[in-house]
Known about the structure:
alpha/beta
Amino acid sequence: MSENRLMFWQRMARHYTTVMGRSAPLYREVCSRIRPHLNRDMNVLELACGTGQLSFPLSPYVRLWEATDFSSNMIAEAKRQVASSRLHFSVQDMRYLPYADGSFEVVIAANVLHLLPEPDKALDEAARVLAPGGLLIVPTFTHAGEGRLARLRLWLMRRAGFPLRWKWSPAEFLQFLRRHGWKVVQHHVLQGTFPLTYAACVRRCADAEHEKPVTEHETA
């Protein structure tokens, strides 16, 4: 992670819970879609947990929830809130995780892949720590077209210093996942301040049919 990107999130941490509160209905919808995949026998790893928008409501339904973020300030803010013994927060780089192969039945990475210079490396590490048959859940902000509203959203994000790297449409995002070895078993486009593409995936067999790539849009 670049120093500038880290500093952005370090500065944002104090206000992050309040800012994300504006998207509370969207996060409730994401939680409602994740919840049926969880049970009390599962170990779950959350990447880029922020201040716990998914961690706190969903961790009571599993055996262990490891919530990680590369911003120490985000983790510090999350730890200020009341948590159960099954929820553990730590500072981690999602490209180089300290966990053993196959440690988790579910890996969740919400609203982060579009911010990474090399999101494929994060996906590879997620695949490594997933148990055989494990589920990857990656709700990700995507972009619908190039209309006036879409351009305004991008302008506001850039004005705020938001470190956006990839400008995927929903179809491009799903194709990105498939091209990097994942079978998308569930997906929905959810509407909020920014459209969000919810995707749940499993690792695809090595002999799966090759899929025709689509163009990915990286922001300038």
